[in-house]
Amino acid sequence: MRRLPTVLVVEDESAIAELISVNLRHSGFRPIWAMDSATAQTELDSALPDVVLLDWMLPGESGLTLAKRWRAHPRTKAVPIIMLTARGDEVDRVAGLDAGADDYIAKPFSTKELLARIRALLRRRAPEEEVKVVTLGRLSLDAATHRVSFQDQPLKLGPTEFKLLHYLMTHAERVHSRSQLLDQVWGDHVFIEERTVDVHVKRLREALGEQAAAMIETVRGAGYRLTVAGLTATVSADVG
Ligand code: CA
Q: What is the crossing angle of helices 90-98 and 63-72, to 10°?
């Protein structure tokens, strides 16, 4: 199943938070509500959301203070922030944007507009897919169409195996530890056991078939590497 984008709603007024959350859910987002700055910080520490809706006036630290702190921190500096506030003056808008907010919406706002701004922000922040088709040896992966083929024969891969293969192919000939793969393929702060990586590598090898699977090497004590050398060795062995 596709992971729903999470939106951290930092808002002390429960009626507004509820209204926003309902609309987010209807639009395919997963809202998380934090009613004060301390809760917001805890949520952010446990997992990075895709977007933060940040109310300006909060009990405890203000939204402005939070935005400034998050921008100053390497882990949170890139998190997309939309400031949400009753303050609509130009001076406040500028202060909000200066503090590092990506966008600004004044209350009362239309939920339609809010959702449109979230989507626009996510589009702007989406990593550019630099390379769409990756080919290594006779193994080819198309990130745009989610197709994988070996010797022009299409292969069936599960979504995680696809992501794993995509990462390995775009970072070939290097050894990746299990924890690096968890970070890169499974994402930030996902608490999964490293053994999970082995399970998906096994599935990936099965899906690739014997010849292509030889490209994925297990490097004892270190992790996994995708290498074209493995493929060549297998082919010459077959031929010989
Ligand atoms: Ca408030």
A: 30
